[in-house]
Amino acid sequence: MRSYWIYLIIILCPFIAVAQNATITGKVVNAASKNPVPNASVFLSNATYGTSTNETGAFTLAGVKPGQYELVVTTVGYEDYSQTIQVGRDPVKVNIELTQKVLMLREVVISSAADWKKNYEQFRRDFIGTTENSKLCKVMNPHILNLIYHRNKQQLEASGDEFLVVENRALGYRTKFLLKNFVSDAIEHTIQYAGKALFEELPGSVEQKKIWKLKREEAYYGSAQHFYRSLYKDKLKEEGFEAHDFTRFLNRERPEEGLIQQKIKRYRDISPNRDSLINWYKLSNLTKWNRENLVRIPYQSFEILRKTPQAGIYAVVFPHLLYVVYNKKEEKTEFRDVYRPLDMGNFETSIITLYNNYILFDMNGIVISNPSPLYEGTWSKAKLADLVPVDYEPGD
Questions:
Q1: Are strands 374-377 and 347-353 parallel, antiparallel or unpaired?
Q2: DSSP one-letter string for 34-69
Q3: Which end of the chain is least crowded, N or C, by CB within 10 Å?
Q4: What pLDDT was estimated at residue 186?
Q5: Residue 103: strand, helix, or coil
Q6: Where do the domains of the chain lie, and which CATH numbers do they carry?
Q7: For residue 5, what pLDDT is reported?
Q8: Rounded-to-integer distance, Cα 213 and Cα 222, Å
Q9: Residue 40 · residue 73 · CB < 8 Å
Q10: pLDDT-flagged residues of the chain (< 70)
Q11: End-to-end distance of the chain based on CA atoms, in angstroms?
């Protein structure tokens, strides 16, 4: 009987896969001449589905899991094209017209090799990360990056006209990232970036793939993607999440971060003054927040989740801040400005700040709001080295 069921599953699996997944086909042409555009890259952003157009401009993306995706087309000499598509179980057909790019001169910044190397090392830390996984990431073409450091604002900007290719030997992906803009602000301690990514499976032995499977699951569980999926499925508690209402206020005794850094630099480098320097260092060590209050009873999914008129798109709403705890992992990093009650376990914790009055996300658990919410705590560590594609499912 056991052999019979194994045989039946093996026979049925191909038909199940065909029933659940869909195919996207289309043709890419020049918007002006209507001539086909061959060899254009066509992919679903932040997913593992990608291909190129043939000589007639046609393309096919097969085996796409249901969900909302951003279809991206890019090629030399044309403006990048993107379109949001909803994939169900029926085939999807799209016709795409590309507009020729107007040549624009880029700002020329002359810097020494030492400056470029210093800027690149900061970019690598802020974009790829500093976790154990980041140590197994290799940037294959770093010199396609345009790096500019604004010393007065303490901001690093980065962009690229080609795919930045990163081989992640920790998770088994080759990530091709079209980085449109990137800003790392050392004063505000924020990192913002925008771009499109294609994930490709790296070749590996059977044993290597087993290791990658475990590492991918480790990266996924407790992530923001995992949280949003658990929320719309009404499985927060089952999956290990708690979401709490949280309020806090700025500490008025602590000056703004920009002023603190300015004073420290002045009394340390420009006009040395030991007493003043010590005083400003003390101010810098003050916590950023006070009067912090955490509502201990967690939200139920229905209290913060809303459906939208668009199928497969959900909204998260909450009045103050959202304090998210994942109680299946302990936090290994100390975050000075993330509040943690003394009687609460040292679990992974993230704080979500809204820029709008809501967060929109899709069935893949990916935020589609613009601007995106601000993450503090555990989720702020999620750089490229620890990201899995939007079509990833544990057990894949």
A1: antiparallel
A2: --B-TT-EEEETTBS-EEE--TTSEEEEEEEPSEEE
A3: N
A4: 87
A5: coil
A6: 2-98 (2.60.40.10), 113-203 (no CATH), 220-251+287-386 (no CATH)
A7: 34
A8: 16
A9: yes
A10: 1-20, 103-112, 396
A11: 27
Rounded Cα distance between 367 and 70, Å, is 12
Q: What is the pTM of this model?
A: 0.84
Where does the chain have alpha helices with state H? 2-20, 113-123, 206-220, 224-232, 236-239, 257-265, 274-284, 301-304
Question: Using an 8 Å Cβ cutoff, are 339 and 246 in contact?
Answer: yes
CB contact at 8 A, 147 and 120 = yes
Dihedral of alpha carbons 29, 32, 33, 34, sign: positive
What is the distance between the alpha carbons of residues 362 and 396, in angstroms, rounded to a whole number?
20
Specify burial of residue 177 (Cβ count, 10 A radius: 0-12, 13-18, 19+). buried
Closest CA to 96 of 25, 166, 164, 185: 25
Q: Which two tokens stand for residue 15?
A: 């038909």
pLDDT score for 210: 95
Over residues 251-301, the pLDDT tens digits come to 999 998 888 888 888 888 877 778 888 898 898 888 889 999 999 999 999
